[in-house]
Structure formats: structure tokens, C-alpha cells
Specification:
Family (chain B): Belongs to the tryptophan 2-monooxygenase family.
Pathway (chain B): Plant hormone metabolism; auxin biosynthesis
Largest sheet of chain B: 5 strands, parallel
Shape of chain B: globular
Keywords (chain B): Auxin biosynthesis
Distance between the termini of chain B: 54 Å
Shape of chain A: globular
Number of strands of chain B: 23
Catalytic activity (chain B): L-tryptophan + O2 = indole-3-acetamide + CO2 + H2O
Radius of gyration of chain B: 27 Å
Oligomer: heterodimer
Strand content of chain B: 15-25%
Low-confidence stretches of chain B: 1-5
CATH superfamily of the largest domain in chain A: Cytochrome c-like domain
Number of strands of chain A: 2
Number of domains of chain A: 2
CATH class of the largest domain in chain A: Mainly Alpha
Strand order of the largest sheet of chain B: 12-2-1-16-23
CATH class of the largest domain in chain B: Alpha Beta
Structural class of chain A: mainly alpha
Pfam family, one (chain B): Amino_oxidase
CATH architecture of the largest domain in chain A: Orthogonal Bundle
Low-confidence stretches of chain A: 1-27
Chain lengths: ~150, ~525
Amino acid sequence: MLRTILCTGVFLCLAVTNATAQDSAPTAQPQPGAALDALLQRFSESPDHFTQTDGAALYQTTCQACHMEDGTGDAGAGAHPPLAGNPKLNSRHFLAGVILTGYHGMPRFGPMMSDAQVAAVTNYVRTHFGNDYPDPITPAEVAHLRPPGED
Amino acid sequence: MTKIPYTPTRRQLLAMIGQVAGAGAMYQAMTSLGFAAESGYTAEPGLQGPRQGRRVLILGAGIAGMAAAYEMRRAGYEVKILEYQNRHGGRCLTIRGGDRHTEMGGHEITCDFEGDGFFNPGPWRLPVHHRAVFDYCRKLGVPLQPFIIKNNRAYLHSSRAFDGKPQRIGHVEKDMRGHVSELLAKSLHQGSLDETVSAEDRDKLLEGLRDWGVLDRHHRYRASNDLGGVRGWDTRPGGGLMAEKSPSQPIDLSPLLQSGLWNQLFNFNSYSFEPPMFEPVGGMDAITDAFAREVSDVIQFNARVTRIAQGDGGVTVTYEDGNRGLVQEETADWCICTIPLSVLVQLEVDCSDEMRQAIGAVPYASAFKVALEFRRRFWEQDDQIMGGVSYTDLPLVQIAYPSYGFLSEGPAVLQAAYDTATGGRNFTYSWSSMTPQERIDAALAFGRQIHPQYDAEFMSGTSWVWHRVDWSLGCYGQWTDDLRDTHYKTLCEIDNRLVLAGEHCSHIPAWLEGALLSALDAIKRLDQRENA
């Protein structure tokens, strides 16, 4: 359903940009159509589960909120730990397990992601931000890590 | 003047019952009067106070910490609050024009509102049954104004139904009621409910359904002048020789059901959102400012707690004093810690293994808001929406219209996007991953589909993402039933010299009331232990 929404959004946005150019009236200054379209792709097409399948896209729509664009996290009174150079990522099972079940204050993503999605984002994190682990996790391995009673 | 017979107030009546029959009977009576059923809350914590000088160190100057300090000092304890930020209030805050915040990740959130509109990133409305909040507002002199939660003229919107055209809440509600009444009447006529409904009840039901659903004499839900008087008009009744009135047309049942708008209506069903609701005049921080007026002399700002050590003799809290760049220690007889669990789990804390597990067990919910300032109140001027909340299936989820400043000229602020993880939707994560500018762009892109005036009237925007706040790392404790069964009691128990408080130690997570009740309960138990 979101595809339709996005198209409408882009259309209106272009229309506005034109109007601005003609009237030079002070209006909203939305991003150019393509950039806005890419931004709105950040939202899943369903509210119940994430619909992105690509590891980078999944990272952008979930992990990035706390671990930031470059995987460095940030710290103040409390910290969102970095994913760059974090020795805990040595274990693909550990990282996939954290994504599935959450860890401390971090919410769990298991109920909103398929095994393939958890595998994709795990493998993305373990091969980016300076990480270069050679052992990807498979969706079947993720399935084994799911807590009992969770599909 | 005739003498009015003596009628005791409820308070006087309860006091009488308490004197004659004891506290148990009084509590029972309070329940009967609808007083105490929710929490056992009493307006006065009734602390005995210490028998000798006792020092209480409170961590966090949010509403739980300040309420604890206020009440314990009144009872004779010496109190001190350590606060990480350079401000009081915690998650209860209000953002106004000129404010700047740097969020985690280094992006600056700007607020350039030119009018007197404000933005409450955290709590923003008060249900009347949150009695502790209302009692403190009364005691501390916080003026409240009505907060319009349900406005029948606000919208329900589906991007997939009615060509994306928003529908009025009142229309959806009355049409569903009418259609359901018609269906029920039909079943009653067909005798399909004869086994469940007696003949006498059936007649009463049919009679009632006609009024309730505004059915015609054949028990059909159809446009009529009667329905116009309930649902509204296409041409409203006028004066003089104005055009003849004509009733509005109901939406058919099937498209209504398929649209999902009926389900959106359930947003208003919650006891937490029962009208009337209220808000402090001028912004939610009026409540925490009122507490700060009472206790600001005991708050030390810029104090980042790093360790909570305790023994049988007392507690020692280590903190970095940001004012002087020094590591300092405070000792006390008791410690009330209101630091969010998401942060507390990262500190060194002396406590039982069970409590440590509890502290680490509770995820912190994702939540975000975007607020936009517009040149004029087009929602009032063009759409006749005076306050209230519109819901949509778009990722912005809801738009809240200001319940203040009606009809005024000049800029006004909408809470243009808001959701939390409790709603079960994943949109809040995506909003949280965006830069402040991107959130505004997205809120505009979606919002203009409901209010096309956005483009011509937009001035500036601001936002808040709770996972990018370093002192809370999320919005509130996201409990599940399983987590509560395993950890809640341990989390709330006094661990030697330490007790936790805050919304996370309550059954009303995320609400000020939960934080207050948690603090009041914690200090009551500390006081009992002190006097045991």
C-alpha cells in the first residue's frame, strides 16, 4: 500500500517545487523528488513487519536510530555501543540473537523481521563500518536462535 | 433561608468511617465511592519521618525524583538530588521557539517557532483519573486547561480508501453505530437471537436501536432529517431565506469496514484517553517547574552518576561533577534512584543479582514526535477542526491540533507526527533513524495528503526522538506480561539501602502518574523501614 502513498507524495512534492519556482512564494522547501522518495522508502510498506529485505536498508530503518549512520553509536549519560570495531560482533550468533531478542534497553526486532531479514542485517553489520567477518549467518541458523513459541 | 440538612463531603464521610470502623473499612468505602479502586493512592503519603537525622540521596530530577524529595523533606528527612542534565524535569519537557538541543549522533534540533505555540516531546495530556498528578497540580498551583482529545470534526484517514479523502470522526462513529444497529435489528426481526433475547427484551432492544442508531421505522439506517440532526448536514439549517437544509449521506457499511477507519476509531476507546482530558496552560513543563520551585535548592545539576555502592550502613554514590570536572562522592542513609533502566544497566550498582537482572531485562520503547509551525490555523479556518486528534494509516500516525489559542491570527503549531512502539507499528523506528531535517521533510510529505494547506502555510518544524536522548536511551519501560511476572516485584523492592522509582516501576508506564505513584510508594516503604 505504501507504494501508492509514496507516488502521491512525490507527485505533490514535484508540483509544489514547480509552484515555488513560478510564484517564488515562501513555501515548504521539500527535498528534490528523488531524495524524498528515497527517504520515504525508509518506512516499511506494512506497520506490522519490516518489508525491506536488503541488509543496508534494514540497517537504515532500524539500527541506525541508535548506532548511527556510520555505526559509531554515541555516548552521554548512557551509551549506544558502537558496531564499528566491537569485538562482540565476532560471534554472528550473538549479534543475530541480540537483534531477535533485544539486549538491556534495546528493543527486540524478532517479531517484526523474518529469519532472512535478521540474517541480512546481521551480515550487513558484520561486513561494514570497518568490520570484515568472513562467516555470514544463514536464515536457517537464525531460525534456531528464535525464542521458543516465536515464528 | 431554609436550613440545608448536613450532608458530609466524601472526605468527611470517609474520615467518619475511618474513625468508627477503622482503616480497612475506610478503604472499602473509598472503593465504593470510586476513590481508591485504581491504585490505593491516597492524597497524603502519611510519612512518619525519621526518628533521628537521616539523609536521602535521590538520583534524577524528573517528576519521580522531585516528588520524592518534596515529600521526604516535608516529613523531616534531609534530601539531595543529583541530576545529570543542567535542567530539571526529565522526560516532562516543553520546547518553544529559540530552543536548541543536540541529540545523540551530534545533530542539532532547532526550534524556530515564531508564535507562542509549544511542543511537548514527552507527556502532553492528563486523564482525570490520574489523581496524583491532579492533586499535585492543585497543591502546587499549576493551572490546567481542557485538552480536546476527541473531536468529532477531526479526521480519520486511510491512504487506501475514499480516494485518500479524510473522513470526519463523527461520521465514521455514527455510521458504524447506525449500520450495526440495523444489522442487530434485522437479526432480532428474523428471530435469530430468540434463544438469547426474551420477547420483552427484544422489544426494548428494537426500540432502543431505533434511537441509538437513528434508524427509520423499518429499522433501516438511511439519510433523513432525523439523521441530519445527529450526523450533520450537507446543507446546514440556515436563517431567513437561505437554502433549504439537506441531511448528510451515510457511508455504506462495506467500504467503511474495508477502509480500516472503524479500527482507527478505537484509538479513542482507551480509559487513558477518556474525555475530558487536561493539560497545563503554556506547556507540560509547568508541572515539573512547579515541583522545582519547591525543591530546586536541593538539586545539583551536571552530576553524572557512575557508581552506586551500598552497605548495611548506607550508600555512596560516585559522580562526575560537570561544573568542576571532578569525580565526587555523596553518602546517605538511603538512595532513591530514578535513573531510567536503560541507563542504569550501564552503571556499576551494588544490588542483588535478581535486581541486576531486572534492571537489564526491560527494553526501552521507541517513540518520536514532529511538530510543525504554520502561518495560520487552516485546520480551524478551512476545516473547522478546533482541537483534537486526527488519525491516519500513513506513517505519521496522528496529527494533534492545539487546544489553546483558538481563532487567533498568526502562527500556530501542530503536533504533526507521533507514535510509540506500544502501538505495535514499526514506523517509529524509521522516524528515529532520520536526521531532524529528514523528519520534517517526511512529516510534510505525509501530512499534505491530509491537509493540502501544508505547502503554502509551513514555516518551520522541530522534532524529538527518544532513542537519541542520552539520558533515557528510549522513551519508557516497554514491559510485557512475561517480563512483569519475572522481574517487576524485584525491581520495586527495597534492596538494602537502595530503592528504584520512576514510570518503569509502575503499572502505568510512560505516564507522569506512573512515575508519581511509584515515587510515593517507594518513599512510603522506605519510611516504614526507617521506622520498623
